[in-house]
Amino acid sequence: FSGGERKRFEVLQALVLKPKFAIFDEIDSGLDVDALRDIARQIKQLAQKGAGVLIVTHYQRILKHLTPNQVHVMVSGKIVKSGGPDLAARLEEEGYRSFR
């Protein structure tokens, strides 16, 4: 299976197992535009069914399809800033330097 297919299976598995909480670590890494859209749609379905969702990402791409309740910036394993979706946009523009 390709990386994108494995990531789709990861999200589908969560939809089938119906966890109370799901963590997706870099679920958007290496995905093409269509796969990213599909995975975001499936993550929305999971959240709409009542599951809590934590997405770890280094890019804002997936946030074009999902609107987070909270955004946390981690530097050296510690949360250094928390906020709303605007924080992700700020991080994308300024990089991590402004959070150190």
UniProtKB/TrEMBL annotation:
InterPro entries: FeS-cluster_ATPase_SufC (IPR010230), P-loop_NTPase (IPR027417). SUPFAM superfamilies: P-loop containing nucleoside triphosphate hydrolases. This is ABC transporter ATP-binding protein, Fe-S cluster assembly ATP-binding protein. One of its GO terms (molecular function) is ATP hydrolysis activity. The keyword DNA damage does not apply. PANTHER family: ABC TRANSPORTER I FAMILY MEMBER 6, CHLOROPLASTIC. The keyword ATP-binding applies. Coiled coil: none annotated. Keywords: ATP-binding, Nucleotide-binding.
